[in-house]
């Protein structure tokens, strides 16, 4: 959203702020340095310098010739540029998922758990894996439940769509029914935390089982 506001402000400044009017003058023959050093052409050099100074002052004092119609054209140009920008964003929103459709491996989420250590969700084909990334890459878990995989994939697609959200006034022109989906599914962050908690519980159970086996051997 910040990128959209920055582009809008930049487009506004490019359209509204007029460029300074420059006054072009015909090229005049000026004497060379050697000619100015001579006594005969000294008066000519003085006259040329006075003329140039007067022309510079007149060009600075000359007001801009912008009319009310020019400002109207600027406003309509700004509206046209913003409309094109939102249409491009809408097209990316509708077709953005197809850009990465042919990718075999996708990173659909991750969270840092320490210095140079993170837990990543990778989608390979139709399978989703929880991978620990540190000094080595370790497979922590494979998500087998179809319902859970569908929910994770949907959360990932919703996040992509929210990053390229189109204003409501433009959605009325793009959506045929003009309806807005008001359903707010479970956030990806909470789902990822559930996966981490389940991994911790599984790790604790494995450690407890190993401890029980160790005590049995000692007995």
UniProtKB/TrEMBL annotation:
The keyword Transmembrane helix applies. One of its GO terms (biological process) is bacterial-type flagellum organization. Its main location: membrane. This is Flagellar biosynthetic protein FliO. The chain crosses the membrane at residues 71-92. Residues 1-26 form the signal peptide. One of its GO terms (cellular component) is membrane. Keywords: Cell membrane, Cell projection, Cilium, Flagellum, Membrane, Signal, Transmembrane, Transmembrane helix. It is found in: Cell membrane. Pfam families: FliO.
């Amino acid at each position: 959203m910040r990128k959209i506001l920055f582009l809008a402000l930049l487009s506004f400044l490019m359209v509204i702020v007029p460029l300074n009017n420059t006054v072009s003058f015909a090229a005049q023959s000026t004497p060379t340095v050697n000619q100015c050093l001579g006594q005969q052409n000294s008066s000519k050099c003085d006259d040329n310098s006075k003329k140039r100074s007067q022309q510079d002052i007149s060009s600075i004092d000359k007001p801009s010739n912008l009319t009310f119609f020019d400002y109207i054209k600027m406003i309509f140009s700004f509206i046209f540029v913003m409309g094109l920008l939102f249409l491009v964003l809408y097209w990316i929103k509708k077709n953005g998922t197809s850009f990465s459709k042919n990718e075999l491996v996708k990173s659909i989420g991750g969270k840092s758990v320490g210095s140079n250590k993170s837990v990543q969700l990778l989608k390979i084909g139709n399978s989703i894996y929880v991978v620990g990334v540190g000094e080595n890459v370790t497979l922590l878990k494979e998500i087998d439940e179809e319902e859970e995989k569908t929910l994770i994939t949907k959360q990932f697609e919703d996040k992509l769509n929210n990053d390229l959200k189109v204003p409501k006034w433009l959605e009325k022109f793009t959506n045929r029914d003009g309806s807005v989906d008001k359903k707010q599914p479970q956030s990806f962050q909470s789902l990822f935390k559930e996966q981490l908690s389940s991994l911790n519980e599984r790790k604790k159970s494995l450690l407890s089982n190993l401890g029980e086996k160790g005590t049995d051997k000692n007995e």
